[in-house]
Amino acid sequence: MRDEAIFAALEAVRAACDTTARRASDPVGFVHRYADPLDQELVALLAASVAFGNVQAIRMKLGEALDRIGPRPSVAADDERALFTRLDGWIHRVYRGEDIARLLIGARHLQRTHGSLGARFAFDLASHADLREALAAFCDALRHEGGFPLGAASTDGAPARRGPGHLLPDPRGASGSKRLFLFLRWMVRPADGVDLGLWDVSPARLLCPVDTHIHKLARNLGFTARNDLSWRTTEEITRALASFDATDPVKYDFALCHMGMLQRCPSRRDAKKCEGCGVKPVCRHWRHARGTGSSKPRRTLAVSGER
Ligand code: SF4
Prior knowledge:
Helix content is 51%, strand content 1%. It is built from 15 helices and 2 strands. It has helices spanning 2-16, 19-24, 28-31, 37-49, 55-69, 73-76, 80-87, 97-114, 117-127, 131-146, 163-167, 178-188, 212-220, 231-242, 253-263, and strands spanning 91-92, 95-96. The chain has a two-stranded antiparallel sheet with strand order 1-2. It is globular and about 60 Å long. Residues 291-307 have low confidence and may be disordered.
């Protein structure tokens, strides 16, 4: 019964999502401005890679970078010296223009060698049974081609900066690789007005890009009891989502994430802040509350082992 109620809530959240409006406020909106799949791949990789922190700041700095790069990123990335010049002086948090130039140059090398980033990733998937290893091999290739190995000192001999390693992390680490899975979701999931369905990869292979919004909602729905945004948490949440649709486990991600952003989930029973939340009927903070009239949280049992 509970699974059915959660499934109904997830479907309702997805149906209620104003995709057009939300896409316009999301980094993926930039990807849809380009017509050529080669440009879309590069813009998606860049947009997902810088997608951490305040979304308005991300969109502003991303827009500035793309204006500098010009209307055809795949053409611009072929002229490597000019690309460095175009992006010189661009800064966003720990990233500098030279970091994103190297990312795009590396990606463009892979496009020229394999035909597309999607073809390269399919090759990595075919070469590694394990998704994590395949993704790590893909990132290794990007770093190698772009000339920014993890932890390398900068070209002027100064100490290593955090930017390059953060821009394209190593999936072998403990992190849940949220930005990489965001990129994969955009490229792999069937075209639905948000995701683009460019790559010939099964959506069933994807893991959920777990950010703070998804993590909070997942805990409140009993998908995980874990406190971190690690790979293990990502797997747990994806497994729970796969129980509703194993062929496309991350199809609720966009709608849930945007609902989380709008709702500013307090992760406790708060009549005002929880008003209008699409998963309130199945939220652990509310599901025993019907008819009690009480706003105090009750102790809940059997939420992924949590008490
Ligand atoms: S009902 Fe409230 S606590 Fe529960 S997920 Fe929604 S906003 Fe968060």
